[in-house]
Design goal:
The chain is of the alpha/beta class. Helices cover 42% and strands 14% of the residues. The chain has helices at residues 4-11, 15-22, 30-43, 49-56, 72-87, 110-113, 129-138, 159-172, 193-207, 224-235, 249-262, 293-313, 354-365; strands spanning 61-66, 91-96, 119-123, 142-145, 154-156, 178-181, 217-218, 243-246, 271-276, 287-290, 332-334, 338-340. Helix 2 (15-22) crosses helix 3, helix 5 packs parallel to helix 12 and helix 8 packs parallel to helix 9 (193-207).
């Protein structure tokens, strides 16, 4: 079996250079990298990640804690984060923990993390006390996305302001009967976003003297199907709301589907605004508050790499005891958002009396 020394001898470089070249690390010329790869191919040499980890005390692996892998928002975060980490020679270990409340803690323990990862990204998830204690005891650098935890760097948007922007847009268009989709029936311990976006909506309504009736706030599970079901409840009401702020684009697209099926015209009879700028939002003409999700993942990886670099300069192994895993002045990056106005929102059109609506329909049908 070939050894790294054999590759180094044929390529005419040191074993350290072979290691850097095969791991895709910087500060290796393209000519040298090509010679190393050619030698490794000739000898059928495959580097042992376990041996490299034992020698360096580093795994070159970042654990990414995520509640959902398949949903668009989380997939975009993972894509952005993993691209940056990969470019710096790190692999990603996905820790799909779901949203199982207290039972979730059994999925995130020391056996899963200790000596297996160098650092951890936590994506839009509120960690329980036992999980926080575990990560702090392991002294792993941690960066959070979408949430704030004291002592750890974070990347997020201002969810309250996002909701205020969306609701204010509808108020400025003249709407007064504005519903909200996305609220949890009770505060969810794992996620802060639903309550923050509901709070922003309610603040703008109150500031404009507008009442929020209980039946105008509808819970949904943040999926397209959940938005469609919420649309059934809202659009079957009498009277219907004239506008809806939906806390995610996926739910908004489901609600738009229901509106079309029920014959509710958008935006003449119903204005709809979402959040995210999902890649299919423009197909539906959906007005949305856009957030650069992949950029948020990239920025989180940048903060994590900076934390790892600081630790490396101190000559510490990933699980060494130090205060570098907890920083009272940890950087908190707030990423800006932007309202994108498309065809799903428009000025309030006053409702016509029933007899005038019937006359208008007959006039159109007669071609007059």
């Amino acid at each position: 079996m070939s050894r790294i020394e054999d590759v180094a001898r044929i390529a005419g470089v040191s074993t350290a250079t072979v290691s850097r070249a095969l791991r895709g690390l910087p500060k290796v010329s393209e000519d040298t990298r090509a010679r190393v790869l050619a030698a490794a191919t000739e000898l059928d040499y495959v580097a042992s990640p376990t041996a490299a980890s034992l020698a360096s005390g580093k795994t070159r692996v970042v654990g990414v804690v995520v509640p959902y892998v398949t949903r668009w928002y989380f997939a975009q975060l993972i894509s952005g984060a993993s691209r940056v980490l990969r470019d710096h020679g790190y692999h990603v270990l996905l820790l799909d923990v779901g949203d199982n409340g207290p039972q979730r803690t059994m999925l995130l323990d020391s056996r899963m993390l200790s000596k297996r990862v160098d650092a951890v990204l936590v994506l839009s998830l509120q960690l329980h006390a036992v999980e926080l204690d575990l990560l702090r005891r392991l002294r792993l650098p941690v960066v959070t996305v979408g949430t704030r935890t004291e002592g750890w760097p974070s990347v997020s948007i201002d969810d309250v302001e996002v909701a205020r922007t969306a609701t204010r847009h509808l108020v400025d268009l003249g709407h007064r009967d504005i519903a909200f989709v996305g609220g949890e029936p009770t505060p969810h311990p794992d996620f802060a976003t639903p309550s923050d976006r509901r709070r922003g909506y309610e603040e703008v309504m109150a500031e404009n003297g507008l009442t929020v009736a209980p039946d105008r706030v509808v819970s949904a599970d943040w999926s397209v199907r959940g938005g469609a079901a919420a649309g059934e409840r809202l659009l079957s009401a009498t009277p219907r709301p004239t506008a809806v702020f939906v806390a995610s684009d996926e739910m908004a697209m489901g609600l738009l589907h229901t509106a079309g099926r029920l014959g509710v015209r958008v935006p003449d009879e119903l204005s709809v605004v979402g959040v995210d700028d999902h890649e299919q939002a423009w197909v539906h003409g959906l007005t949305t508050v856009s957030q650069p999700v992949q950029h948020e993942g990239e920025e989180a990886s940048r903060l994590l790499l900076e934390a790892l670099a600081r630790r490396g300069k101190r000559g510490q192994a990933p699980d060494a005891r130090s205060d570098s895993a907890h920083d009272a002045d940890a950087e908190a990056v707030i990423v800006p958002t932007q309202l994108l106005v498309r065809g799903s929102t428009g000025p309030l059109v006053p409702a016509l009396p029933a007899e005038r609506r019937a006359h208008a329909r007959s006039t159109v049908q007669a071609g007059r």
